[in-house]
Amino acid sequence: MTSAPVPTAAATRDAAGLPVTLDAARLREDFPILAEQVNGHPLVYLDSAATSQKPLAVLDTERDFLTHANAAVHRGAHTLAAEATELFEDARATVAGFVGARPEQLVWTSGATMGLNLIAYSIGNASAGSGAPASARLALRPGDEIVATAIEHHANLLPWQELARRTGAVLRHIPAHDDGTLDLDAAAALIGARTRIVAFTHVSNVLGIVGPVAELVALAQRVGALTVMDACQSAPHLPLDLPALGVDLAVFSGHKMLGPYGVGALYGRSDVLEALPPFLTGGSMITTVTLDEAEYLPPPQRFEAGTQPVGPAIGLAAAVRYLQRVGLERIHAHEGMLAERMRAALVEIPGIRLLGDAPNAERVGLWSFDVEGVHAHDAGQYLDALGIAVRVGHHCAAPLHARYGVTASVRASTALYNTTDDVDRFVDAVAGIRPYFGA
Ligand code: PLP
Questions:
Q1: What are 67-97's pLDDT values in tens digits?
Q2: For ligand 1, is residue 233 a contact (CB within 6 Å)?
Q3: Which of 17, 152, 203, 284 has its CA 20 to 30 A from that of 363?
Q4: Does residue 113's CB lie within 6 angstroms of at least one atom of ligand 1?
């Protein structure tokens, strides 16, 4: 065993030398589920990349809304409807502000998957000639190219496969090095005159590595391609300023960032949203309608046909305020410390192979790994029996797993409420997996 220093909560200091640690033990009181016993053991929840737990502030906010202010937004002329509309639009402003955007740049969706499909379908509609004259600049023609990375979640891959099929465009992929970082030389060679869309994740849900956003945006801008970023795994874990990153469109999911299920958001640069034709049509997104045609509202309402997830959106705003109160810098430092502590222990366990162990990469608190001689599902069951919740499988990134020669891995992912005790219990348990299975 080497004697590398084990990161602790006290290891991180800000520029003034002050500790920037957060008190995870104290935060846990806000998440009653974390006090549950699972299989006779106190729960160690290390599956926040799949879905995060929700603090009381979020549960209470949603219930208060439904108890005291519930009404149809944007429609009724009565007092309750006005109050509900105000809360709903305030929530939009809060969530938009969280990512550095203006309210009209934030469209409610049901989650990241819907956001990415909305973009791809809307571009498909522009390609079929629908939308305002400005939509033509987003249209794809046969032979145009969509470039995605080879490490994407299926949610940022399949919509592009479908769009390519519908338009005759060609889908190409930026490969990754063995250490999980993207091959930027290959990206520079791939992104060229025919490239119309460059789609990439901010943080990989398998590797935990923060991607080279500035470099990808620069390569795309050089050829006038649209950039689409999946911010699912960054929004809850690090400060996010989407306009400053320069991306054209980005998506994230509420349930992964302490918020409710069924709500997420699409951010868009104003001129891009203006040019995008709608994906869904129906009530609440029009100015005028005749039996033969309709005129659509400007963004964001143009993309919000039908009844919206009002309570969840108001709950998501409460989640965002919670994250902001704790502080995203502090959360990022805390989770980075947990990730380092986890790594330091995992690399000492024989037969554990980390996926994407890039030296010096900026990361969030997440590791996926292969256990030699033990199937990931067996490893997951062993951990579950000890009260430890992790994700096993391909984490909706089958091509990336194939790249590493495996069909499944074990993924442990942290959030602001995880402690060094969680990490220690987890790595102690991982050390027991191979001996238990006789591997
Ligand atoms: N993108 C990434 C990187 C993810 O991790 C996930 C969820 O696992 C998604 C997209 C899809 O999110 P949702 O299922 O909330 O739409």
A1: 999 999 987 789 999 999 999 999 999 999 9
A2: yes
A3: 17
A4: yes
Q: Is 149 in the pocket of ligand 1 (CB under 6 A)?
A: no
Q: Give the count of alpha carbons within 13 A of 153, CB side only.
A: 23
Strands 226-230 and 195-201: parallel
| CA angle, 333 then 42 then 322, to 5° | 40
Report the distance separating Cα 203 and Cα 31, nearest Å.
Answer: 25
DSSP structural state of residue 141: -
Residue 416 CA, chain-centre distance (Å), reads 15
Tell me the best of 52, 109, 110, 113 to mutate to test the pocket of ligand 1, counting ligand atoms within 8 Å of each CB and taking the most. 113
Please report, as a single letter, which amino acid is at residue 13: R
As given in the structure block, the two tokens for residue 27 are 């935060």
> What domains are there in the chain, each with its CATH number?
24-55+327-437 (3.90.1150.10), 63-323 (3.40.640.10)
Q: Is 396 a catalytic residue?
A: yes
| 8 A C-beta contact, residue 241 and residue 100 | yes
- The SS3 of residue 41 is strand
Q: How does pLDDT run across 145-191, given as a tens digit for each residue?
A: 999 999 999 999 999 999 999 999 999 999 999 999 999 999 999 99
CB 261 within 8 A of CB 112: no
